[in-house]
Design a protein that fits this description.
heterodimer, A: alpha/beta, ten-stranded mixed β-sheet, 21 strands, 20% helix, 39% strand, globular, SufBD_N (chain B), SUF_FeS_clus_asmbl_SufBD_core (chain B), SUF_FeS_clus_asmbl_SufBD_sf (chain B), Fe-S cluster assembly protein SufB (chain B)
């Protein structure tokens, strides 16, 4: 069968690095997802198929340290795990005693192309476990790439929180060169446990980032996530969240700020598989130049998931003639006693609001900045941790200054 | 809680007996040979005395269809259709005389009487509830399509005097070939999709409406579709053209007998609106939905599309979908004229094992185009209902606007309601707003009504009607009454 369909240079390079097993077979059979696949209609990986990706070279500790200071200065202090070019840098890693490093065992999701790719090549990753009722504080998970032309990384991480455990994961991804990052994060939140996941994706503007988060949340557990997407020429952040116990909570909030010809896709599938659960999504897109934002959010409510409370809001601000947004908020509901809603708005800056500010003597550029920041605030304000909020705010500010300059 | 339990029980006990249009009329029919081939198409074309170009057009569509794959992305699931195991042409044997009602087979007239269609003015007066309270009403011109052929068109003369052409499309092909040639397939091309290609190859009749420049059609136009014969598919084709500043309101209704096997209905409707023209297209779809176990019923796979080609043209779709085992259609608007307007108002009700996947597409090509989408979905029993819609703002659609609201109501815990909107914006000055909610009838609302002396069924009826009000008020009077009755019947048990 594979003889009949041509295998792309990218797939060929992946197969040459893949482990034997189911994922490899699926990868060879399916290739990279294209437009025909409904879940990928707005983000086909046609261009990615054209070139091969090698395994990156290892770097010295000094190089890694310099890279960390340059690309993720926020992680210089405090607990952290650092990966450079797909390899853990032990000398830069410092973990609190409250967490335990366990063996990695990442499930393969055969119907998710990103899981298949990650699983087939899977290099390293870290599996952390926080024991019952322990608050492990904040840990930075930093994944960097350098000398990144035509290389790819496929890190797989796992976070497991036992009953009542607590952790804040500051997930920073960045790099230099035209690489592909294809990380996966498997999250397991037990009863009453609470994971805060803050992700900053500021990859090189020539890079591609295809990330998958697969989270399972038990009774009264919370997975509270916020993703800030600033980098990569092409990126996708795919979140699968499974609410498996009563009163479980999931937040998938995000802001995507795109310029040049960047394309960023936020796709989520939130499965309400137990009664009384709560899901919240606020996703904001600020699109400049020929930036292309994509939002696909699905709330699935199982028959038994009565009293579900699901909410989804996707908004896009188009700041240029060439900017584009594709939005597909989706509800699939099989229980009758639910409260589910979604909303989407797309448009330019409001002329009246601009006029209001200008009439009060505020210069045009500043007025624009105020309105854009106000637009983003709805999403950013959902980050309650002060330090984390300050970090995100700084990065947004720097991004805006650079674009407006 | 008990009220809802009762409702649910009542819904569950709903049987096929509630489909009162399930009778079969015993009329001698003539069929084309069973199955689909070039011969069938040649037979249909010959029987309709069509010109050569029409036959060529059909054959071209048939070849396109043969090379196409049946789509499978939709939510409803159905067993494979054997396209060779159906008749593509069935005609009442007694030649209908479109000139006067007397020439029509009395059996046929009785059928329409049973359907409650206002075939002549008396019937209009008698058939419309609350007619007495109204001032003198506009008469309604009716084109009735029985299985494959149009049997009678009323008020043709009056309309002709106004310059309006309203006739079966097979007549139009013979009498107005230049118009048909120019517009047929111009909105829905023959190879647009699998079912449109099939329709283009084998359509047997339907309505043709042409409203010339500056004419406001003096009465509502209406078509009643009826599938009667066994093992037939109905493939009607409707083409409505409104020239500059012309206006028309068109109504469509449909029923079918109760049968155990499924029947395919694959229609194509094309609308063309020029400068400042207005077309209002209303549908009350009540094909046989199958019994409570999902046996039988119509597969309603329809392509409906309107093109606003002129400046400030307006096309408005209103639909009340209560029937069919499976409804699968997306009445759409292509807004190509500057300032043109597209509207879509829909109520889709599913009960028992019915499935619906319906919505709209609004394609904004020109500046300052506007569209509104209001979709209300009600699911009961074991049914599934999906709203699927696309709003696309193309780069030239400066200042375009869309507002979309989708609301779903679930009655019972064995049904599903789904919303799948696609929003694509390529112009920064275009504004799109979308909101959707899913809920059930709240105990508070029920309690409020019940404590004021309403029976449980009346209370649910009141709430459902309120839920659908935004759409029902868009229907012409005649249909609004019928639609409300249908809503109640479809949800009988839960709606008084």
């Amino acid at each position: 069968m594979s003889g009949a369909t041509a295998i792309s240079p990218a797939i060929e390079s992946f197969l040459s690095r893949a482990h034997q097993g189911e994922a490899r077979i699926l990868l060879e059979l399916q290739g990279l997802p294209q437009r025909r696949l409904e879940a990928w209609r707005y983000t086909p990986l046609r261009d990615l198929d054209k070139t091969g990706f090698a395994a990156p070279d290892a770097v010295s500790v000094d190089e890694a340290r310099a890279l960390l200071a340059r690309l993720a200065p926020e992680a210089l202090e405090g607990h952290r795990i650092v990966f450079v070019n797909g390899v853990a840098i032990a000398a830069l890693t410092s973990l609190p005693d409250t967490v335990e490093v366990t063996d990695l065992s990442v499930p393969l999701l055969a119907d998710r192309p990103l899981s298949v790719l990650n699983n087939a090549i899977q290099q390293q990753g870290i599996a952390l476990r926080v024991a019952a009722d322990v608050d492990a504080g904040q840990i930075a998970l930093v994944s960097l790439v350098t000398n990144g032309d035509q290389v790819s990384t496929h890190l797989a991480h796992q976070i497991t929180l036992d009953t009542g455990a607590k952790l804040t994961l500051l997930d920073i991804q960045s790099g230099e060169g035209a690489y592909l990052a294809n990380p996966s994060l498997t999250v397991s939140v037990a009863e009453k446990a609470h994971l805060t996941h803050l992700r900053v994706q500021q990859d090189s503007l020539e890079a591609t980032n295809l990330a998958l988060v697969n989270a399972r949340i038990a009774e009264h557990g919370t997975y509270d996530s916020f993703t800030l997407t600033l980098g990569a020429k092409l990126s996708r952040h795919e979140v699968l969240a499974h609410l498996g116990g009563k009163h479980a909570i999931v937040h998938v909030n995000a802001a995507q700020l795109l310029a040049g010809s960047q394309h960023a896709d936020l796709t989520s599938v939130i499965t309400h598989a137990a009664p009384d659960c709560n899901s919240r999504q606020t996703v904001k897109n600020v699109l400049m130049d020929a930036g292309h934002g994509v939002f696909q959010g699905k709330i699935y409510v199982d028959r038994i998931a009565q009293k579900t409370d699901g909410y989804q809001m996707n908004q896009a601000l188009l700041l240029s003639e060439k900017a584009q947004i594709d939005s597909k908020p989706e509800l699939e509901i099989y229980a009758d006693d639910v409260k589910c809603s979604h909303g989407a708005t797309v448009g330019a800056l409001d002329d009246e609001q601009l006029f209001y500010l200008r009439a009060r003597g505020i210069p045009h550029a500043e007025a624009r900045a105020i309105l854009v920041r106000a637009f983003l605030l709805d999403a950013l304000a959902l980050v309650t941790d002060e330090a984390a909020y300050a970090l995100l705010d700084r990065r947004v500010d720097a991004w805006w200054q650079k674009r407006e300059a | 809680m008990p009220a809802v339990t009762e409702t649910r029980e009542a819904v569950e006990t709903l049987g096929q007996s509630t489909y009162k249009w399930g009778f079969e009329t015993d009329i001698e029919m003539e069929f084309a040979p069973k199955g689909l081939s070039e011969e069938t198409i040649r037979f249909i074309s010959a029987r309709k005395q069509e010109p050569e170009w029409m036959l060529d057009w059909r054959l071209q569509a048939f070849r396109a269809w043969q090379s196409m794959e049946e789509p499978s992305w939709q939510k409803p699931e159905y067993p494979a259709i054997d396209y060779q195991d159906a008749f593509y042409f069935a005609e009442p044997k007694s030649k209908p005389g479109p000139k006067s009602l007397e020439e029509v087979d009395p059996e046929l007239l009785r059928t329409y009487e049973k359907l409650g269609i206002p075939l002549h003015e008396q019937a209009i007066l008698a058939g419309v509830e609350g007619a007495g309270e109204q001032e003198a009403r506009l008469p309604v011109a009716v084109d009735a399509v029985f299985d494959s052929v149009s049997v009678v068109t009323t008020f043709r003369k009056t309309l002709e005097e106004a310059g309006v052409i309203f006739c079966p499309i097979s007549d139009a092909i013979r009498e107005h070939p230049e118009l048909v040639k120019r517009y047929l397939g111009s909105v829905v091309p023959v190879s647009d999709n699998f079912f449109a290609a099939l329709n283009s190859a084998v359509f047997t009749d339907g309505s043709f409406v042409y409203v010339p420049e500056g004419v406001k059609c003096p009465m509502e136009l209406s078509t009643y579709f009826r599938i009667n014969a066994r093992n037939t598919g109905q493939f009607e084709r409707t083409l409505i053209i409104c020239e500059d500043r012309a206006t028309v309101s068109y109504l469509e209704g449909c029923t079918a007998p109760m049968r155990d096997e499924n029947q395919l209905h694959a229609a194509v409707v094309e609308l063309v609106a020029m400068n400042d023209a207005k077309i209002k297209y209303s549908t009350v779809q009540n094909w046989y939905p199958g019994d409570e176990n999902g046996k039988g019923g119509i597969y309603n796979f329809v392509t409906k599309r309107g093109a606003c080609r002129g400046r400030n043209a307006k096309i408005s779709w209103t639909q009340v979908e209560t029937g069919s085992a499976i409804t699968w259609k997306y009445p759409s608007c292509i807004l190509a004229g500057e300032g043109s307007v597209g509207e879509f108002y829909s109520v889709a009700v599913t009960n028992n094992r019915q499935q619906a996947d319906t919505g709209t597409k609004m394609i904004h090509l020109a500046p300052n185009t506007r569209s509104t989408i209001i979709a209300k979905t009600i699911s009961a029993g074991h049914s599934d209902s999906t709203y699927r819609g696309l709003v696309r703002m193309m780069p030239k659609a400066r200042g375009a606007r869309n507002f979309t609201q989708c609301d779903s109501l679930l009655i019972g815990d064995q049904c599903g309601a789904h919303t799948v909107p696609y929003i694509e914006n390529r112009n920064m000055t275009a504004r799109v707003e979308h909101e959707a909610t899913t809920s059930k009838i709240s105990e508070d609302q029920l309690f409020y009504c019940r404590s004021r002396g309403l029976s449980e069924e009346d209370a649910v009826g009141l709430i459902v009607n309120g839920f659908c009000k935004d759409v029902l008020k868009e229907l012409p009077m005649e249909f609004a009454v019928e639609a409300q009755k249908l809503l109640q019947l479809s949800l009988e048990g839960s709606v008084g």
